[in-house]
Specification:
With 320 residues, the protein is mainly β. The chain contains 4 helices and 14 strands. 7% of the residues lie in helices and 30% in strands.
C-alpha cells in the first residue's frame, strides 16, 4: 500500500508507513517514518527502493508519537495487539438456521399439544373417564361367578328366600304360650337378664324416750331409719268450749326441726267441739301411731300445735 502524508507543505512532507509500502514521492527530499521498525528516514525516490534514503538516528523520532501501531496504517485485524482470548457476548438473538443441528433436533421432538395411543402408555393410572366399558367376557371368571348367583327374587315383604333360591311366606307366629317364672333357672320359663334386687335388712327396734319440741336423730345415724311414734290425748267438751289436740312430725337435715324448720311428714289430731247440753259430760281419748322414714343423718321432732299430746311409746329401726 502507499504511504500516507502526516504533514505536508510546499515542497516538503512527512509521511508514515511501513518499510514495504510504496514511496509516492520523487526527486524532492522528504522524511518518512516507518511504523513497523520505528525508524525515521530522509531522502528522495519513489517505489519501494530505499537505497538513497538515510536513516535518522535522532532518538526523538523513535519515541515520538509518530511511532504508531501497524494497525493504524493497515487496518488489519492481524495487526491488533492485546486481543483478549474470550469476548463476553452481549444479549442477542440467532435464527434457528444459525445454530448448527438445532432444526434437526427440533424436528425430532413432539408438539406441545399431542396425543398418544393407549399402547404407548406403559406406566401411571388412567382416569376413570378414559377406561372404556368392557364386556363381561373381558373379565376373567366374571361370567362364571355371576352364573353361580341367584336371580333377583320376585317375592313380597311377607316372604323370605329359601336356600335354593325360591321364596316362601313367613309362618304365622302364635302368641306366647309360656308363663315366665322368676325362680326358673332354665327352660322357656326362665327370665333372662334379671336385675339384682338388693335385700333390705332392718335392725332391731330401739325404744326411745321422746319430749316434744326436741330434735332427735336415729339411734344409728349412719343408716336410714324407720321411726314409729304412738301418740294419745284426751279431749273434753265443756259448757264453755270444745278441745282440739294436734301435733306434727317434722324432719330436716338440721336440728332446726325442733323450732319450726323442716318438712311435715305426719299429723296427729283429736278434736271434740260442739254444744254441750247441761247435765251431759263428754270426753274422748284418741291413740294413734305415726310411722315415717328418716334419711341418713337427718333430724326429727314432735311439735304440738294445739292442746296436749302425749307420747306413749317410740321406736326406731335402722335400714340396710
Amino acid at each position: 500500500m502507499t504511504m500516507k502524508a502526516l504533514v505536508q507543505g510546499a515542497g516538503s512532507a512527512v509521511y508514515f508507513g511501513r518499510s514495504t509500502d510504496t514511496i509516492p514521492f520523487g526527486s524532492a527530499n522528504f522524511e518518512m517514518f516507518l511504523t513497523d521498525i520505528g525508524k525515521m528516514y530522509t531522502g528522495k525516490g519513489t517505489g519501494t527502493g530505499m537505497a538513497s534514503w538515510q536513516e535518522q538516528n535522532n532518538a526523538a523520532y523513535v519515541t515520538s508519537p509518530l511511532m504508531v501501531a501497524a494497525v493504524a496504517i493497515s487496518g488489519s485485524y492481524a495487526d491488533l495487539v492485546g486481543i483478549p482470548a474470550d469476548f463476553t457476548p452481549s444479549a442477542h438473538d440467532h435464527l434457528i438456521s444459525e445454530v448448527t443441528g438445532l432444526q434437526t433436533d427440533l424436528d425430532g421432538k413432539a408438539a406441545v399439544a399431542h396425543n398418544h395411543a393407549a399402547g404407548d402408555t406403559n406406566s401411571g393410572t388412567f382416569d376413570d373417564a378414559r377406561i372404556p366399558a368392557l364386556a363381561i367376557s373381558k373379565t376373567t371368571g366374571l361370567q362364571a361367578a355371576i352364573d353361580g348367583k341367584f336371580s333377583n327374587p320376585a317375592g313380597s315383604t311377607s316372604q323370605y328366600l329359601r336356600g335354593d333360591g325360591s321364596t316362601a311366606t313367613f309362618p304365622a307366629i302364635p302368641a306366647a304360650q309360656v308363663n315366665a317364672d322368676w325362680a326358673a333357672g332354665s327352660g322357656l320359663a326362665q327370665i333372662l337378664n334379671k336385675p339384682a334386687i338388693p335385700v333390705i335388712l332392718f335392725g332391731s327396734p330401739v325404744s326411745r324416750t321422746i319430749t316434744a319440741a326436741t330434735a332427735y336423730q336415729a339411734t344409728t345415724n349412719t343408716k336410714p331409719a324407720v321411726v314409729t311414734l304412738n301418740l294419745t290425748s284426751s279431749a273434753a267438751l265443756s259448757l264453755a268450749v270444745g278441745v282440739t289436740n294436734s301435733a306434727d312430725i317434722v324432719i330436716g337435715s338440721t336440728n332446726g326441726v325442733a323450732g319450726g324448720t323442716g318438712t311435715v311428714v305426719g299429723k296427729y289430731t283429736n278434736s271434740l267441739t260442739g254444744t254441750l247440753i247441761i247435765g251431759l259430760a263428754i270426753t274422748t281419748a284418741s291413740a294413734s301411731p305415726i310411722t315415717f322414714a328418716l334419711p341418713i343423718g337427718w333430724f326429727w321432732a314432735l311439735r304440738v300445735t294445739s292442746g296436749a299430746v302425749t307420747v306413749t311409746s317410740a321406736y326406731d329401726q335402722s335400714v340396710g
